[in-house]
Amino acid sequence: QVQLVQSGPEVKKPGASVTVSCKASGYTFTSYGVSWVRQAPGQGLEWMGWISTYNGYTNYAQKLQGRVIMTTDTSTSTAYMELRSLRSDDTAVYYCARRDGDYGYNWFDPWGQGTLVTVSS
Amino acid sequence: SYELTQPPSVSVSPGQTARITCSGDALPKQKGFWYQQKPGQAPVLVMYKDSERPSGIPERFSGSSSGTTVTLTISGVQAEDEADYYCQSADSSDTYKVFGGGTKVTVL
To answer: How confident is the model at residue A12 (pLDDT cuts 50, 70, 90)?
Structure first.
C-alpha cells in the first residue's frame, strides 16, 4: 500500500537547523510530488511548499523562503525537508504528503505519520 | 496573503447532518479539498475537487461548491466522525496552497 514513513522526533536549539526525512513506498516515487505541511501545538495546518520528484522543482511558502530547502533522493525514494535558523515558533509537527492531482488541481494524499520538532534553549 | 475562512466549531447530534463551510475569494476559480484529523493522528483526505470522495471514505460524506464557498456535509453523523476538519485550496494563480483554520466537529 502507499505509505510515507518519516524520521523520528528532534530537539534543537534556536539558530540550529533540522532535517526531516520522508521515505515513500508502494508507488512510483517520481510520478508524484511531495508536499510538506506543519502544525504548531494546538494550531491548524500550514502549507510549507512542495518539490517535484521528477525534476527537483520547488515552490516554497513566502514566509519560509530563505530558510527552507526541500530535496529528494530518487535512488531511495526519500524526500527531505531542511529548516534553518530555527526559532521557538518553528516548534511543530512536520508532515510530508504525496502531492496528487489532475487537470491542474492538487491535493495531499496520503500523509506521513508526522515528526515533532521542538525548538528550545 | 490569501485566506480561507471556516467556523471554529460545529456541534451535531448523532444521526443528524453536519455542514462545514469554507469561504475564500479564489474558490470560484480553484477547487476545494477537505481533510479529517483526529487527535494525535495525521490528516486524512475525505473530499477532493469539491465533491469527489476518495475510495474508503463513507458515503455519508459529501461536498459541494457555490460561488466563494465550498461545503463539506456529513449526513447521519456518527460518533467516529468527531474530529477537526480542514479545507484546503490555492490562491487564484495556483502558486501557493492554503488551509482554512479548521473546524472542530463535536458529536453531542
So the answer is: very high
Q: If you search the block for the grid coordinates 519560509, which residue do you land on? A: A64
CA distances from A121 to A8, A46, B45, B69 (A): 20, 24, 36, 43
Q: How many C-beta atoms lie closer than 10 Å to residue A62's C-beta?
A: 10
Contact call for B96 and A62, based on CB within 8 A: yes
The string of pLDDT tens digits covering residues B50-78 is 999 999 999 999 999 999 999 999 999 99
Q: Which residue of chain A comes nearest to B43, CA vs CA? A: A111
Residue of A106, A107, A113 to mutate, testing the B interface (most B Cβ within 10 Å of its Cβ): A107
Look up residue B27 and give its three cell numbers: 474558490
Q: How many CB pairs under 8 A join A and B?
A: 58
Q: Does B101 touch chain A (CB under 8 A)?
A: yes
Identify which of A30, A15, A10 has the alpha carbon closest to the alpha carbon of residue A114: A10
Could you tell me which of A44, A39, A49, A17 has the C-alpha nearest to residue A91?
A: A39
